[in-house]
Design brief:
This is Odorant receptor. The chain has 404 residues and is mainly α. It has 11 helices and 2 strands, in the order αββαααααααααα. The protein is 78% helix and 1% strand. It has a two-stranded antiparallel ribbon.
Amino acid sequence: MGFISNISRFILSGLSIWQRHSRFVIPSAFVLLFGVLMLLSNLLYTILNYDNLNWINKVVDYGWISVYLTAIYITLCHKEEIKSLSKELDQWWKYNCLEKETTQLKKKSEDWMRAFNAYYINCSIISWTFYVLLPAAKFFYKGPKQRGDALIFAAWTPFPLNTIWGYWITYGFEVLMMAFAQCVYCQLFLLLMTFAIVIGHQMRLVGTAFLTIFKRINMMMNDIEIGSRKEYYEIRDVLLAGELKNGVMHFQHLYRCAYRLSRIFSPMTNVTYHGGMWVMCSIAVKAATEMTFVVMLQAFMMISTVILSQYVYSLVNECLIEEVQKLRNVAYDSPWYEMPIKIRKAFQIFQSMLDSDRFPTLRTILGSQTNMENLSKVINASYCYFSMLITIKSRYETTSTSDL
């Protein structure tokens, strides 16, 4: 089993620590069941306490649930397609006289995947620890009648919150909800970034094949007995056409893989970008109006998490786009001018295919790419909505005061 297939196997089987090859795995069906329970408990709490709830809290709570359920949906509905894509990307393209370079690039991509995955897992553990400790801090910060507001989600449980044992049982239930939500989302992103890294390194292999095409053909022709000069050029042209065809087919293969990747993860992109924008401006309005230490801390953690999620999806797109642009530059730097006219025309058609705007990338439902440029626009739009909500709220409070 290949490196990528090994990662996807542990992720798709449920919640597990793939780096340690842990045998303790929480099945995906159980994770889905817990997500449904989380949704039902939030809905029931909203119905029972509708008049006493803040609409901002509702936006934040259901924003997390939508991310969680979308991640589970991708895991269950696209499981076989993710497995198939993993097997295809594990099969590195073979080029004549490039065995050493292929091995080096493959090892380098695996090292990058291990390093990035370890870094992101550690960041997720730190983030989850803060979310776990925040309700505990609120428990001691607020009075007994206010402890219901100290929980992570507005979830309903049959246990009385005015008792210590009821509060801590509910608190443990919500910690599990946060753990499942973050683990599922973290593992899906690790899988997405793994695919992006291996696609990028295989594009580098395509570029190396084009840069060394004449050198490799000369090495292959050293083992062939050539009778005349005419025969030499005929054999060279045949080998040149074969190597060019091999490289173009490799790029088309990566193009199809990137298209499947963008199609699988497009629901998560929509939830993270558009849903995250409303969560950011809503929690910012709450922090700006209440101005308490606990609310400010919660707003800082929530906004930082949403921006980080939007950033990492933009990072995936930037990695793919950057590798396509690098391959395009390599194609121009390759000795295409030494090729025969017939083969040169085919190579120039391939150069026209290397357009980063046409390459499949993650896009939102509105059609915009999730890159760094659009990330700044999303953050700016969130601030504009935040300013609008603050203005409307202040005018409403001023009107209500004047009426009294």
